[in-house]
Amino acid sequence: MRYKKRFREKRRIPLLKKKWFWRAILLLILFSGIFYLVFISSAFEIKEIKIAGIESCSEAQIKEAIRSEIEVSKNIFLIDIEKAVSNAKSSVPKISGLKVKRVLFNTILIQTEERKPIFVFQGFYIDKEGVVFEKASSALTEIRADFKTAPVLGSEAISRNDISRAVEIKDEFDRLKIELSAIFFLDQRIEVIPKGSWRVYFKREGDIKNDLKRIRILLEEKYSPKERENIEYIDLRFEKIYISLKNPAEE
């Protein structure tokens, strides 16, 4: 006797009764809610800008530069920090360093660092990096170097090599308690002019550290502050140091 196998059709579970479907719906709702809360609602909208580290810069200018970027995206998570920093530095050349931090939910904290004037170049202050940043209002050591165009605020006016040498020269003369009027970078030499009427010549591309050591020893051991008034110039461009006196009889 033959038996026919009975095939029972498997009962299909409706989609709405499947657990994974409702889990997926719940996850979708959860992520949609988080997305709305973080990126669309006003919960994380920037409402306050705080600035720290200001000494003489314009707080209003810095805030205005940052706000121009906030207008693009008011959300604290979507603001382009790098662009905001770039805008602020362009608007306020006196700023040398700037960090923007997100604080809590609605606040941006801006930490600023200002440039310090060290020389005057063509009527403008420049810092230790050779960057022009502000119209000079007081007398500092003047620096002159080859520069074919007018100084532009926020840009380098002096090459890194020249400004580095100028800073080394100034630091050494400060240690000797000799105030400088000017430092000139000429084609073949560096001409340093202390307060008074004497000069010091260095090689344009020489070993400045060694030459500064040579003049320090010379001035400390041979010429007192009073005796330096008789010096016309000191030339360190050669292996031998050449000294010209206004009145050789006083030597």
UniProtKB/TrEMBL annotation:
Gene3D superfamilies recorded: membrane protein fhac (3.10.20.310)
What are the TM regions of this chain, as residue ranges?
A: 20-39
Keywords of the record, alphabetical order, are: Cell cycle, Cell division, Cell membrane, Membrane, Transmembrane, Transmembrane helix
Ranges for domain POTRA come to 44-115
- What Pfam families does the record tag this protein with? POTRA_1 (PF08478)
Protein name (record): POTRA domain-containing protein
Gene Ontology cellular component annotations, sorted alphabetically? plasma membrane
| Coiled-coil boundaries | none
Q: Name one GO biological process term.
A: cell division
Highest taxon of the lineage: Bacteria
